[in-house]
Amino acid sequence: MSDPPLTMILFSSILILTLGTTLCSGIILDNVADLNKLNLKFDFIVVGGGTAGAVVANRLTENSDNSVLVLEAGVSNAGVLDIIVPFFSPRAVPNTAVDWNYSTTAQVGLGGRSLAYPRGFVLGGSSSVNDMVYTRGSKEDYDRWANITGDDGWAWNQLIPYMRKNERFTPPSNETTEKFNPAVHGYDGINTVSLQGIPNIIDSRVIQTTTELAQFPFNLDMNSGYPLGIGWEQQTVKNGSRSSSATSYLAPQFISRPNLYVLLHARVTRVLQTNSNNTFRTVEFVQDLDGEKLTLTAEKEVILSAGSIGTPNILLHSGIGNSTALSSLGIDVVHNLPSVGQNLTDHSLVSVAFLVNSSGTWEDAERNATLAAEQLAQWNTTRTGPLIDSPTPQIGWLRVPDNSSIFEQFSDPSAGPETPHYELIFTSGFFGVPPPTGNFIDIIPVVVSPASRGSVTLQGNDSLSAPLIDPNFLGSEVDLLIMREALKSALRFVTAPAWQDFVISPFGLNSTDSDEELDDFIRENAGAVYHPSGTAKMSPKGATWGVVDPDLNVKGLIGLRVVDLSIAPLIPAAHTQAAAYIIGERGSDLIKRSLGSNLIAKYQYVGPDRPVLLPPSDTTYSVRLELHNNASGGNERPFNSVQSRICSWRKQFRQQVNSVEDYTQVTELNFTDSMVYTRGSKEDFDRWANVTGDEGWSWNSLVHYMRKNERFIPPSDNHNTTEQFDPRVHGFAGINAVSLQGFPTPINSRIIDTTTQLEGYPFNLDMNSGYPLGIGWGQVTIENGTRSSSATSYLAPQFAARPNLHVLLHARVTRVLPSRPDAVRTVEFQDLNGKLHHLTAAKEVILSAGSIGTPNLLLHSGIGNSSTLTSVGIQPMHNLASVGQNLSDHSFAFMSFYVNSTDTFETADRNATLAAEQFAQWNATRTGPLVNNQLSHMGWLRIPDNSSILERVPDPAAGPNTPHYELIISNGMLGVPPSTGNFLSIMTAVVSPVSRGSVTVNTSDAFADPVIDPNLLGSEIDFLILREALKSAMDFTTAPAWRGYVLSPFGLNRTSTEAEVDDYIRENSGSVFHPVGTASMSPKDATWGVVDPDLKVKGLKGLRIVDLSVVPFIPAAHPMAAAYIIAERAADLIKASWSRKSVSLFSVQDYSE
Which InterPro entries match (predicted)? Predict the structure, then answer.
């Protein structure tokens, strides 16, 4: 934005401050001599390391076969305080060392004034110096691009994947309710987007105005494609610092790629013909304005990403442009392309300040050196305080009324009825240099759908001279008229009751009595928002006008492409950095496709580089032993999760009442669950803390680890998720993807309607808040229609590629052995060929074999009840009687109901053609019914407090906010359906069981199965609760929502007696396969239990357990989330217990018995 930047008196003498940031790995070079020494060839040369150029460089080098050189004219972004501190952004430009320091020609619409016209002369380009506002624009903006170019790939719906691919939305730590719509954002992209991180003095007044004045409606999220209204600004800020293309797409983990190089201070002057067939793959550049002109040639393409000023300037000096104009300047014409440099479009603004009856505005710090120093010190120390935000807390996007007389004279310049004509930017301070006294707010009207067009031309043939920049601000009368209406709108905004006793009067606007006076004010004060676009615009492939085709190839030339905002045929009604990122993302894929690649590189996760257990370090090595590979892909499809037991141990229960059941535990590098993500209740974890005497296991202490694990993302179908989850309770920057169902089922609305019709089934917005009671939408570990497991997330390629992390498959560990008398750091394992080996860790062995595998290993190692071990011929090593005891699991029984519908699972079960179509849809697009698991909604409920059941025994739940049972609702029969009929299933599960079982061994053969006795329903109270749960399932379908849909129960009647229900339970109940507790935690000095609260095996050194076996009580939840939480905290416990000393590599020895 224009005019003098915020001039904080204290900081005026320290514009650039080195913060200790250094260039990375030598891959960012300052001198071409260093590049020449490497004697490299590059497939692609990217001219400009700005917003879009950095994206292209990053995405192309995802393929290690592509080598890329970025030539950046400017300086490094490292250590420039005014760039890094968000609130200082208005000081970054103009007239600084990171600015090209351009100025415009005299602007007729502004009374002949010339304006400073800054562009980023720095790595990251203008994303390093802008005000960080992140706005995409309207759906109609991009659909208009598609219509103009004849390429639907530029339409909004087609660009959504690129928006998400760019964006890593990270909510701030403060309250975000009703500030954004999580459904429209990306959470696993590269560039961080967030909300304001600290409250602002005008926040409540701006939002309150939207309820008081109808012409200013509230908009929950202006990045939905429908921006009209007033809402909360979104900004590219990460942890209190600017997030630019340089800090994100050229972050250390990317710039260290061996196929990516950046050369700074490399000012490209021309692109040159490489051979005689119109191929332009050679660039000419200088590193010193008086220095030698150098050339480099790309093997495949040159990509111009020099921006809407730099790109046409380079093309014109290269002889690519209007041949007549070029000849007149003495430039040899190489290719006649008259549209080069034309169509320059920008947003114009004017600022209106208001004197306010308040302190707490920017002026306080600008006039108080001590306060300003305190704010900087706070930011520098903790990245908190008022400097962590851009200066713009809220923004409005508005239209001139359709019946305005303006549109009787002029056609509507906007892209459509959902696209704004103007913007209002709200700031809590004076925009520009403030008067010596008074406190102010500012409202800045901006014309965002301008009709005016300007140009970038040359003033001579000196390729190092600045171009002539004529944005033609307010050159079209309609823009002036819209600006006048926008100014009036700003004045009306502060007439709302919210501003009474706060706004005293306008400041600097002497009279608003006539349109002429307003027009004079505009001409004298209007400036630029610095959003130039369109100077190398796209046009259809066969068109004779335009500069690039829809694939961004320069028309009529080979080997030269443009990827930046200059290609936009029309400026979006938005701050344009988001559009630049989108262009960069799609441009990258267009380049990849043109090379014949059938594979578009997947997003790389950019976040804290951490494995689950050990920190990344050159001197720390970890090895993981696993029995199977997960690469076969059989479990990728979420819908098949229930049937997927191919890679299971297939162990069996000890007889449970009248039957022996399979007990499924996985042997593959994954966890073959149904992907249900539920944390449990706050009381569950607080009970762990009470039992262990360690507050670190309480809910409040573990919330950090929940967020560290979780990367909540929108569902596969990108549906509107309003009222389906609460974003406040989730993590958005973790490793494992969590989402909502990605394909609607016909029972969704009926389930939710039931919560309003039957009192005993309240709606719960988010069962992962720590307060799960009620019925709500299921949350699942699914990403892009595919299972997200610990293997696909924590062992994803970017983590598995670490040189200090190794995974050995087909390695069945049989025992842990003493490595010396007081330490157990050796494991015995069998390889694929049946050979036994020993492997010794330098620091620790961590058992994560699960609640069946871990006690089985301990027992065969001689760690357990000495008497029992001796009786089966195992030599006791360490008497620990609790090993294998306390096995807890959730028991279930399910009810099915005949339904009056064919839209259930059974239809595809019985129709091979339909099933094949569904699979083909999933295989091709990761959409359709197979993107979901089979569990639509869940309910967490309690039996009444006055139930006679609770008169017999103490309440088994962790507290009054913890459920006794769960209802899982499914759009089809769970299990093998009958040959006819369609069904609804409701599974009931006892989630706070009293019953306890065990894992024991009855032989010294380490390869024999353990004896697994979950003792399901062994306690009468569990049986009685399951009976009540079944009754509850039947009651649920009596709601009006199910009339005409549910025909009758199947297998159990509503009129069944309790005795009949009990028989049904005994014949049909089973396990949910949630075993926990067989190596449970206890206080450090307790004589019972297996591990202490730090998860160390009691009485031994070098041996720790990190899995669900350490749980003292089973959480009232599907325990996958608990397993992740345990591992995340354990990783920190292990890190804290070891200093970072060098560790020798583990050694492996052959061993035979």
Answer: FAD/NAD-bd_sf (IPR036188), GMC_OxRdtase (IPR012132), GMC_OxRdtase_N (IPR000172), GMC_OxRtase_C (IPR007867)
